[in-house]
């Protein structure tokens, strides 16, 4: 496991410790931005990279919300400190569908490139509503989430997976909860008592598939 830097990552009013894979549940955009904007701005102010993967329809709106805090998004993107991607540039870049192994490789590539560009940390925020679209591979979301837990302990960078409770069904929410060691509920960060280690949860997923 990578050595965690000091108390320099704050989210939802608390310091983020050694577990930096977080699922964040929100009911509306106001709750989401109220929670995440201070986290984003803190990283920018500390010279860290921000990489956000959002619904392509909302990319412009997302930039406007960042600018509402005083961030110069054009300059930040020019300097590569900010990167905003639509789903087709990340989760759905494999011929319009989701390729689990490709996305795991992309996450590592993103984290390594941030370091090579001179940023001490890369703070990644990714929305998961792409998994609700009728695309190849989207049912692999939960396996992807749990396999991330075999990769992320080698890095210090926080990865926040955003779940819209008004769109995601109960099954996705419950499984999403079980694949993240940290969780944000009601705008508050908690260590997740329902987290299942990847080896355990992968066995469960395989059992589910074999019983279908």
Describe the fold and architecture.
With about 210 residues, the protein is α/β, with parallel strands linked by helices. The chain has one domain: 3-Layer(aba) Sandwich (Rossmann fold). Helix content is about 40%, strand content about 20%. The protein contains 7 helices and 9 strands. It has a 7-stranded mixed sheet, with helices on both faces. It has a two-stranded antiparallel sheet with strand order 1-2. α5 links the parallel β6 and β7. The radius of gyration is 16 Å and the shape is globular. The N and C termini lie far apart (about 35 Å).
Average pLDDT number: 94
Fraction of residues in H or I helices: 25-40%
**What is the straight-line distance between the termini?**
36 Å
SSE arrangement, N to C = EEEHEHHEHEHEHEEH
Structural class: alpha/beta
Overall 3D shape: globular
CATH architecture: 3-Layer(aba) Sandwich
Radius of gyration: 16 Å
Number of domains: 1
Q: What is the CATH C-level name?
A: Alpha Beta
Most strands sheet: 7 strands, mixed
The CATH topology assignment is Rossmann fold
Quaternary organisation: single chain
Relative strand content: 15-25%
Strand order of the largest sheet: 5-4-6-7-3-8-9
Number of DSSP E strands: 9
List the helices and strands and how they pair.
Layout: E1 10-11, E2 14-15, E3 21-26, H1 29-45, E4 49-54, H2 59-67, H3 73-78, E5 82-86, H4 100-116, E6 122-127, H5 141-148, E7 159-164, H6 170-178, E8 182-185, E9 188-191, H7 198-211
Parallel strand pairs: 3-7, 3-8, 4-5, 4-6, 6-7
Antiparallel strand pairs: 1-2, 8-9
Helix pairs in contact: 4-5, 5-7
